[in-house]
Amino acid sequence: MTVALAQKGMQVEREKMVQVCFRGVLVGWFRTDLVLNDKVILELKTARTIDPLPEAQLLNDLKSTKYEVGLLFKFGPGPQFRRLRRDNEYKVPAPAAFPAEDRA
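The structure corresponding to this sequence follows.
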């Protein structure tokens, strides 16, 4: 997937470390599957169907990070995807919660 996206001219970061904030306070870090153009979290799963658990996990990732859009891709029999969105205006801001640079 990373090769196909890069060939389309998109910036793809694999296993990017991303800040996690709660009520505007940095509480930790997590590693994404992929981040596309520093705007979209892509979560990749292999299963028969999209379970509610990975969908809820991606929504929580969006709530606790600077990212507003997430895509959940399910590979296997009958590929599926879900697009989730969480606007930053609904998140609690903090002065240093989302600096321009993430942890490497």
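The CA atoms of residues 74 and 82 lie 9 Å apart.
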